[in-house]
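Q: Fold this one first, please.
A: Sequence and structure below.
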Amino acid sequence: MTKEASDIGELPVTIEDVARMEPQLHAWSEMAARAYGFYSGINEAIKKSADKWPAAAHHASDYRQEMALMAIIRLFATMDRGSRISFQSVYRYLQTDAAIDELSNLFAAAEPPSSIEVARGAVTASVARFFEAYRAIDFKAFGRIQSFRNGQIAHISWPEIKAAKVTYSDLETLLQSVCVLAGELKLMLTGCNDWPSDEFDDSHRQAYGFWLKAIEAEASRPTRRTLDRSPKSQ
């Protein structure tokens, strides 16, 4: 298991490394979920008002695209193999022989404390779910944006994303996997349930409600032509 890491010239990852990177990975996953939730909510609002296309809908569309780009940037940060902080590094650690024992010790000591037997059962199940989510990732699809590295990805535009053939479906599937990875990592280290997917749900509802009202309010306003034809103007 550890041979795989040495074969590709990567340094071993320790439990201390994983514990240090977890808060950052969780924060990036939450940011990605929030951004994609805003995208999804705006998208639904625009679809519901498809027969109306006032200026508010154009503004919403621009904002929708920016949120999708932000989600891509955050997701890339969590999965960048070239970064020391990434779920790929966590995955390498979880394949080591010491991982279950070390994680179980942390889990058992976390509040509220538990027996090592209970901790081992919970950690083993959490690691299995982590592996399932990680191995379900389409790394060919992810590789389409892997050329945007480090600071460069912060400056990408939508035409570049389209040229890389990254689809909304790719983005949503990767987001779902990353949310599971972040939640399971938090669980196995601390025993706490804290799932970034909750950020998606909240952001979706907020964006949908706000933009639907904005689009419909503007679409319902009388236009200048309508006012000119009103009885008062005649």
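Q: Good. Now the second chain.
A: Here it is, same layout.
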Amino acid sequence: MKQSTPIRITSMALLTLALTGCGFGQGSAAPSATTTAPVQAPNATTAPEGQRIPGGKATWLSNLPDPSKTDTGDSVAVATDYTIASHTWDTATDLTDAYAVQRAALWGTPELRQLEDEYDADQARGQATFNDEASHRTWTSVKVTSTGRDGVAASPDQDAITVNWTMTLHRRDNTKAKASSGTDDVLLVKATDGRWQVQNSSTRQDVQ
């Protein structure tokens, strides 16, 4: 999914967070299993609790985690739900996979939300997988396989979480598609009220 998500978010160069001893682990091996579309596809709906999705174009998907139910006092929980959301898209309702990143921004800092709000997701580039799947009216589901903390944060209000995941392509025409996998390096900061928020994230897609 975010294989070529615009640099505004995924480039680690944008982050000023200082980490020592940082050595993010490698992603999990790409699965070889195939899948067919299940009967129940996600429904497009409004964002939870009336929250506005940055960019103003994406709709919420019913198979996403609920931001209001995420344990924001746990940086791993926030990083996990953010990662799931950022790789969950539906070609029946989204025009690019950047819509997923804008939905995921609901777990982000105000600054991250603002960046996404100013970005036109319809202009996203590097949409090879998304474009290939559009003819199948594909939607995705994401499973987190493991998480880790590689590196020591510079302060108690900063954290770095690695999230290993697999993404399943569900084709509405019931043709088979290979799952994909990767690792997200998620950097978080703690707000003054104690809530963890995503400041930046980058994806390392496993080679198929």
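Q: Anything worth noting on the second one?
A: Helices lie at 7-10, 75-86, 98-104, 110-117, 128-134.
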